[in-house]
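Margin note: ligand = NDP.
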Amino acid sequence: VSDALEGDVALVTGASSGIGAATARALAEEGAAVALAARREERLEELADGIKSDGGEALVVPTDATDEEQVREMVEETVEELGTLDVLVNNAGVMLLEPVAEADPENWQRMLDLNVQGLMVASQAALGHMQEQGSGDIVNLSSVAGRKAYAGSSGYNASKFGVTAFSEALREEVADSDIRVTTIEPGAVDTELAEHIPDEDQKEQIEGMMDEMEPLRPEDIARSIRFAVTQPTHVDINELLIRPTRQE
Ligand code: NDP
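Resulting structure:
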């Protein structure tokens, strides 16, 4: 345990499971007060209790990240209750893999609304506060799928390429300040993400891939995020691509 983020406030979306929960814990271990956002409030309460019993500070902010008003309120409540906002981790996401010919356009819309639009609105809402204080970290969860397209992943690819592009454009816009933007691109991580895949073939393929190799654990990605946000102010880790060693 160290204290690199002592006095800082971090807001993590999708904190009710997987990478988001592990990241919230890791940032709390560095001394940050953490705001936990997602839809499943009970899960957030459990996580908050764990962080508090380890001596940390946590705030539960139930949020549907596809709802613009709720996203803006999430940021406002964090600032009101915890005093400021230094680190935003845009992690909430869904991966609804389907081949184009069979895809339900509503699933494309869900991915764009959450993975892209929700992340963009949250970034905008956080930016106001960060610009006022002249510094901050915006960490966006893209994916290997934000750099490499593959069959069966079109809609998810479109959303994650969108995240990578948005992050880089935003980074350039704020490069005249101490606001940093970091894109995280994980390979296969063992979480609940694959459970929601609507296409059975795609689901089996992903589950098979997970069984064949040792996937990353949520903590492996949390460690990378922690690394990025604890750098000296003049260092911006722009992009981190992290695959399991045995992933092609
Ligand atoms: P999980 O499914 O375990 O977690 C997803 C999180 O997103 C949950 O906390 C969920 O909470 C939240 N979420 C889903 N819908 C909404 C919504 N409408 N509003 C608010 N929160 C929502 O998956 P991961 O931890 O794996 O995924 C985290 C991020 O990492 C995603 O962006 C994913 O694309 C990315 N990623 C994951 C990889 C992997 O292999 N696992 C690889 C590359 C990238 P709740 O349901 O309570 O709202």
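The chain is about 45% helix and 15% strand.
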